[in-house]
TrEMBL record:
Compartments, as annotated in UniProt: Cell inner membrane
Keywords (A to Z) from UniProt: Cell inner membrane, Cell membrane, Membrane, Transmembrane, Transmembrane helix
Full protein name: Type II secretion system F family protein
Parts of the chain that traverse the membrane: 168-192, 212-240, 381-401
Gene Ontology terms: cellular component: plasma membrane
GO biological process, one term: protein secretion by the type II secretion system
Gene3D superfamilies registered for this protein in UniProt: Type II secretion system (T2SS), domain F
Family classification: Belongs to the GSP F family.
Taxonomic classification: Bacteria, Candidatus Dojkabacteria
InterPro entries recorded: GspF/PilC, T2SS_GspF_dom, T2SS_GspF_sf
Mode of membrane association: Multi-pass membrane protein
Pfam family, one: T2SSF
Stretches assigned to the Type II secretion system protein GspF domain: 70-192, 275-400
Length: 409
């Protein structure tokens, strides 16, 4: 899915600008028209996706903020405070301009007669489609505060998962960055001094290893390296944006990601855990299976899983079961056979939501184990790489010194 910037006019003639994620420009156009807006312009946002860097999303809200907002709303509504008053209180008390502005818009829409779920969908930038559908289900059943607590729980689980993955990657990243900095400092500052010393003593040609290091140092300290680095990073970002802008191209990229040793297995387990968790949560909230599967498919970031789930939904509409659909459309066997069999058992027993909830716990435990062991798995690789770099630097730096010592003697 791509991020788009849009400009629309509402029924009162007011101009509204915003950003929203959508499958395509046409899909967003249809969505905005269905909301009663007159669309002036839609442009794909080609900027770098900050959401991939961690907890802060393009919306300007962290997951922590969203969890807090959900819990505040649930508590106030549960205490008998009218919804519109609760929205105003949160907006007035917030210290963040983004939240103030968003809740002011939501307040105006609810005051004009919209439901909370409709207002959240129209305003955008706060909750995902899954969470908005949970809120809508809570409004229909009269259990809005309970559903808001579920939304907070859902966001909490997402925050914990993201934190585990980020935490597992911090140690290798720090080691790598520190090693690169040390290498650059030694190449740029120490090696040239050794070279000058070597030449000042009238020694012959410096050793080959040192010449290689000097050549690297000359390249790293040249303007050409900086230009190449900037162009290289820009090229990688542009290539990535090009690949993910169309589902068919993103599918190719996602297939590659799923085949990466260790990381690919972790990505698969994360997707399976999310599928089980979201489907179980939506079904337990009273949302029909076909609608639940449609919502879950849109929430899946990996195109392989998205396509499998959407194709399985088509089988559901034809009268087949979810397990049959998953088995039939299982690209690269992304869904394990054992999971499909367990889903089939849940369908036969009428306890599909319970079975999926149990499988979420299983896959979540698997993800925790993988992220917990990731540092241990990477340690041998890090040691080999760091050891090789240290050995190369030591030889390149001390070999000339040793040679100079012999030359003086």
């Amino acid at each position: 899915m791509a991020m788009f910037k849009y400009t629309v006019v509402n029924s009162n003639g007011g101009k509204i600008q915003g950003t929203k994620e959508a499958q395509s420009k046409d899909a967003l156009l249809q969505f905005l028209n269905n909301q009663g807006f007159t669309v002036l312009s839609i442009q794909e946002n080609l900027g770098f996706d900050l959401n991939q860097l961690g907890n802060i999303e393009l919306t300007g809200m962290s997951l922590k903020d969203k969890v807090l907002l959900s819990k505040q709303l649930a508590t106030m509504i549960g205490a008998g405070i009218p919804l519109i008053q609760a929205i105003k209180i949160i907006g007035d008390q917030s210290e963040t301009k983004f939240i103030k502005d968003k809740f002011d818009e939501i307040y105006k829409k609810i005051e004009a007669g919209s439901s909370l779920s409709t207002a959240l969908e129209q305003v955008g930038g706060i909750f995902s489609e899954v969470q908005i559908n949970l809120i809508a289900a809570g409004e229909k059943s009269g259990n809005l505060n309970e559903m808001l607590e579920k939304v907070a729980e859902d966001l909490d689980k997402s925050k914990d998962l993201r934190g585990k993955i980020t935490g597992a990657m911090i140690y290798p990243a720090i080691i790598f960055v520190v090693m690169i900095v040390i290498m650059v400092v030694m190449i740029v500052f120490m090696v040239p001094q050794i070279e000058q010393l070597y030449k000042s003593l009238g020694a012959d040609e410096i050793p080959l290893v040192t010449r290689i290091l000097v050549g690297i140092g000359g390249f790293v300290s040249s303007p050409f390296f900086v230009i190449s680095l900037v162009l290289g990073i820009a090229g990688i970002i542009a290539s990535y944006r090009y690949m993910v802008s169309v589902p068919e191209r993103k599918m190719i990229l996602d297939k590659i990601f799923l085949r990466i040793p260790v990381f690919g297995n972790m990505l698969i387990k994360i997707q399976l855990a999310e599928f089980c968790r979201l489907t179980a949560m939506l079904m337990k909230s009273g949302i029909p299976i076909i609608e639940s599967i449609t919502i879950v498919a849109k929430a899946m970031p990996n195109e392989v899983f998205k396509k499998i789930i959407l194709d399985s939904k088509d089988d559901l509409t034809k009268g087949n079961t979810l397990s049959i659909g998953l088995a039939k459309n299982n690209i690269n066997e992304a869904f394990p056979t054992i999971l499909i069999r367990i889903i089939s058992t849940g369908e036969e027993s009428g306890k599909l939501d319970k079975v999926l909830e149990d499988m979420y716990k299983y896959y979540n435990a698997e993800v925790e184990q993988i992220t917990g062991n990731l540092t241990k798995l990477l340690e041998p690789f890090i040691l080999v790489v760091v050891g090789g770099m240290v050995a190369f630097l030591a030889i390149a730096i001390y070999l000339p010194i040793y040679t100079v010592g012999n030359f003086i003697q």
